[in-house]
Amino acid sequence: MPNPSDQQTTVPVEPAPAQYHPTPKEIKEQRKLAGLQVGFYDDTCPNAEKIIKEGMLRAFANDSSIAAPIPRLLLHDCFVNGCDASLFLDQTPSGARVEKLATSNGATVRGFDLIDEIKAELEAECSGIVSCSDLLAYLSRDAFVVSGVPHYDVPGGRRDGMESLEANVVGNLPLPDFTVDMLIDLFKKKGLNEEDLVVLIGAHSIGVAHCFNFLYRLDNPQKAALVDPRLAGVMKFTCTGPLNTLAFDTTTQYKMDNVYYKQLAAKRALLESDVLLNEDPRTKGYIQKFGEDEKLWFNKLSKAMNKLASIQVLTGDKGQIRKQCRSVN
Ligand code: HEM
Question: Which residue range or ranges hold the Plant heme peroxidase family profile domain (predicted)?
Answer without folding.
Answer: 35-329
